[in-house]
């Protein structure tokens, strides 16, 4: 489908919801290092990057019981402590993220973040980049009754907007958990990158530059 046809086929957004890790920031090396620290504490072998990547997307409270069984709370505590020690020193914005958010901040469209990162660390990182006043809500793991891929965080993120989620809400992420979450809430789903080929988002863009161009073009559509 040509870019022009895509623009006209997508609903003009009334709200934008963004995933955080892997969508706006490159925190994957930090997350992987914290997990390998945790595995070492339990006498287990380090994961390869491919093994760790297959674990991405789920929140800690959902994923750790699957991986560590009865020891999941201890493992989660070790993981979060390790992550907290160095995340602000290593986390980086992805290419095009600043230009995207600055451009959208000039538009009269509410934005929020819906992440499976622990809520405290999510908000600390958003503040680290000085974006805390741009997003009306920053909903992380543990902030809602259920984490992604459940729809609960979407509803919680949109409460300050006084808008109900639907096709005019765009949920933007980088993996199939984001697509599932957005779909569960009835949102238009936009997948960034070429990963997760079996996902079926409403639309896919190659990177944040393409995402910015798409959103700004659709917002101009009469």
> What is the spatial order of strands in the main beta sheet?
5-4-1-6-7-8
Number of domains: 2
Helix/strand-derived category reads: alpha/beta
- The CATH topology of the largest domain turns out to be Rossmann fold
> From the 3D coordinates, which CATH architecture of the largest domain would you assign?
3-Layer(aba) Sandwich
Q: What is the first-to-last residue Cα distance? A: 20 Å
CATH class of the largest domain: Alpha Beta
CATH homologous superfamily placement of the largest domain: HAD superfamily/HAD-like
Strand coverage percent = 15-25%
SSE string: HEEHHHHEHEHEHEHEEH
> How would a crystallographer describe the biggest sheet?
6 strands, parallel
What level of helicity do the residues show? 40-55%
| DSSP helical segment count | 10
Described by the principal axes of the CA atoms, the overall outline is globular
- The number of distinct β-strands equals 8
Taking all Cα atoms into account, the compactness measure Rg is: 17 Å
Mean pLDDT across all amino acids: 91
Unreliable stretches (pLDDT < 50, length at least 5) are none
Any chance you could write out the topology, listing elements then pairs?
Elements: H1 3-9, E1 15-18, E2 25-26, H2 28-41, H3 49-53, H4 60-68, H5 72-90, E3 92-93, H6 97-105, E4 111-118, H7 119-128, E5 137-141, H8 152-158, E6 169-173, H9 176-184, E7 188-192, E8 203-205, H10 208-220
Parallel strand pairs: 1-4, 1-6, 4-5, 6-7, 7-8
Antiparallel strand pairs: 2-3
Describe this structure in words.
This protein starts with a helix and ends with a helix. It is globular and about 60 Å long. 46% of the residues lie in helices and 15% in strands. The protein has 2 domains: 3-26 and 92-220, HAD superfamily/HAD-like (Rossmann fold), CATH 3.40.50; 28-90, DNA polymerase, domain 1. The chain is built from 10 helices and 8 strands. It has 222 residues and is α/β, with parallel strands linked by helices. The longest helix is centred in the middle third of the chain and has 19 residues, at 72-90. Helix 2 (28-41) runs antiparallel to helix 5, helix 4 crosses helix 5 and helix 6 packs parallel to helix 10. The mean pLDDT is 91. The strands form 2 sheets. It has a 6-stranded parallel β-sheet with strand order 5-4-1-6-7-8, with helices on both faces. A two-stranded antiparallel sheet has the order 2-3.
């Amino acid at each position: 489908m040509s870019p022009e046809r895509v623009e006209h086929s997508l609903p003009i957004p009334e709200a934008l919801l963004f995933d955080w890790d892997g969508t706006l920031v490159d925190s994957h090396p930090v997350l992987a290092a914290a997990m390998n620290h945790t595995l070492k504490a339990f006498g287990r072998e380090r994961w390869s990057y491919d093994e760790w990547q297959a674990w991405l997307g789920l929140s800690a409270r959902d994923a750790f019981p699957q991986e560590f069984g009865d020891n999941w709370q201890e493992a989660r505590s070790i993981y979060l402590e390790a992550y907290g020690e160095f995340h602000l020193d290593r986390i980086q914005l992805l290419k095009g993220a600043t230009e995207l958010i600055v451009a959208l901040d000039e538009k009269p469209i509410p934005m929020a973040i819906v992440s499976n990162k622990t809520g405290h660390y999510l908000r600390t990182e958003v503040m680290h980049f000085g974006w805390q006043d741009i997003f009306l809500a920053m909903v992380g793991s543990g902030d809602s009754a259920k984490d992604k891929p459940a729809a609960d965080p979407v509803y919680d993120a949109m409460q300050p907007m006084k808008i109900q989620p639907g096709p005019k809400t765009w949920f933007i992420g980088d993996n199939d958990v984001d697509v599932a979450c957005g779909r569960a809430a009835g949102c238009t789903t936009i997948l960034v990158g070429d990963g997760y080929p079996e996902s079926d988002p409403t639309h896919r863009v190659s990177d944040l530059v393409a995402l910015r161009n798409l959103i700004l073009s659709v917002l101009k559509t009469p």
